[in-house]
């Protein structure tokens, strides 16, 4: 979601006449798209703005912050950044900057030069601060979605379909940083997806905090998530092109059998499902306000295994949640073994200001959280390795995304989003889906040979 927001922020800023620089010291406008999910990320925001405010002693500089921001951080940011606004008001950034007194090609064309000395504009400064403090997170989301994104890739794209969340899990701050659920009009979504298909994009990810509740906020005036997937599937079928459509993240509470049936029916709907578990213990799930039991989760997984046996299964798990006992953690380990995940994103619980659990005593010691994290990661490594070893000797379609970290080989993802190291250095394959025969497997990746001839060098 953060990357998708970036793709809509860039064209707005470029539309004001700004050009991009890779060096902060050269910039006149510096901004951050924040993420309040983890404290470490927010700590980096405070570090960066302190550095930028020192730069203001040497040059005229305007700073802004947007994205996912908790109310407690927002109040502090109002004293540190020049502009603080929700992503839903991104389209108003040009007017915010113009009112702030910064001369850009945009401001010159709208109202002529203005005084850049903010000390001469206390009423403007106070107005902007007051407006930011009373912001309404989702009020202008339809306008935000109208912004045409500047995609970072020529073959992978993110398409937002929904914003906010109504689930109010006790560990989560999303409803307080993104607001309540708002669904994007399906016509806009389908138009953007069709455009990407026409441009030969190979990977398209539908984004939302709770994608499978799509349309429920419209009281029957919008199609459901399964129907949205079905329409995308039909579009892909008619195109005759090979591409994969993913979605993240769903909630088990809204994961219907119909969704699984639609994915099974259409080739372009990727056979990879990310289904957050968070805990394998029912009592912990109740404290988390997840509104599903392990048995209900099990029924969903059984449906996936039945209808899409080739699908990979990913999840999210929190260890050391408030009150989690050794026995409850053991139940999570049992769930890891039972559901045989290909990948799990495991986090050590940390309190997020604004979330309900922030009012509870964080009574699981850090060293216990760390130890549980490593034990569960070890369990994941075993199940993931078993899956990957089963791939050896078989051929898979792989989207080549670039080079590996060492730059020695190409790297890509299978349809199931398994990392693949490809024994080739031919840049021609980047952005293409090719056949790769798997020859070896690691805990979280596989490697193999490309079964296509490398491009001939033309002199």
Describe this structure in words.
By secondary structure, the protein is an alpha/beta fold. The protein has 4 domains: 132 residues, no CATH class; 120 residues, Transcription Regulator spoIIAA; 118 residues, Transcription Regulator spoIIAA, CATH 3.30.750.200; 56 residues, Nucleic acid-binding proteins (OB fold (Dihydrolipoamide Acetyltransferase, E2P)), CATH 2.40.50.140. The chain has 15 helices and 16 strands. A 5-stranded mixed beta barrel has the order 12-13-14-16-15. β2, α3 and β3 form a beta-alpha-beta unit. α11 runs parallel beside α13. The two termini are 43 Å apart.
Brief digest:
This protein is an alpha/beta fold. It is built from 15 helices and 16 strands.
- Total domain units: 4
Mean pLDDT: 88
Shape descriptor reads globular
Query: Low-confidence segments, ≥5 residues, pLDDT <50?
Result: 103-121, 127-135
Strand content: 15-25%
Distance between the termini: 43 Å
Number of strands: 16
Q: Tell me roughly what share of residues is in helical segments.
A: 25-40%
Structural class: alpha/beta
Number of helices: 15
Largest sheet: 5 strands, mixed, barrel
Strand order of the largest sheet: 12-13-14-16-15
Our Rg estimate from Cα atoms comes to 24 Å
